[in-house]
Amino acid sequence: MKRLLFILPLLVFAGVAVYFGFGLTRDPSKIPSALIDKPIPEFALPEIAGTGKPALASATLKGEVALVNVFASWCAPCRIEHPIFMRLARDNAVPIYGISYKDKAEDSAKWLRELGNPYKAIGWDFEGRVAIDWGVYGVPETFVVDKAGTIRFKHVGPITPDVLNNNILPLIEELKRKS
Amino acid sequence: MKRLAFLLMLLTGPALAVLPSERLADPALEARARALSLELRCQVCQNQSIDDSNAPLAADLRRLVRERLVAGDSDAGVLDYVVRRYGDYVLLRPPMREDTALLWFGPLAILIAGGIGAFVYLRRRKLTVEAALTAEEEARLKAIVERRE
What is the CATH number of domain A34-177? Predict the structure, then answer.
């Protein structure tokens, strides 16, 4: 009994060490979004001339499951994830909407001309104010919005095939099935 | 000359990220904005407040805080506005709520538990005083002491 009492601190320490050990494997730069399961913010952004795509407002995002991608031409990781959006758009997997973040309109337009334009509509957020309403703190960020206009998932950083296949696509399928 | 230099030195303020163009004309509102900015975490450079940070997003949030104040928000209203978008994580001082009780009172609880444990242990130890030396030990001790002398 007494021996148990001496071992107890060691056991407690081991438990805490394991718990914090797992904590260390998590990426502290990833902040959980406060907007999951919340309605999308009300916004109306101007279009980007030269893209041939309409402007983006909150009303556009209601009634269907959609991806919203915050991007910028100056953002290197956006270039990495771009082919994934191009493929999704070609396969008609899900409508993708773009928010151009703190980017010159002509730079965004040129970027999309060079790499292809996967977006159904694009909003130009030069001031970054609408992005704040979306809780964006770094580009790229991608949101999954359901038919009711509720944010269901957010990914910070470039979309990887892993995140796409394990998180985003299954969620989209599930949300599409729900009425 | 020296006096002038000294006076000029008094005029300088600490180096801060807040740009002169961001400041509000009303000193009372500006003071509130500064106090609130110290409470808000910059999400880009996470251990700096938006008051300290040079990140563009921190500048945007400083401007937002001032806009909300000018619009007539209370201090709590401004913090709430930012928290609704970025979550509790933006608050450098976590809020005191039921689900954060462990965070706030955990250390105190551990200190009290440890204190009680130490108190009980020390009390019990005092009660079991070492028995006096036996006659044999007494003789050995005496021998050792005498040898050293």
Answer: 3.40.30.10
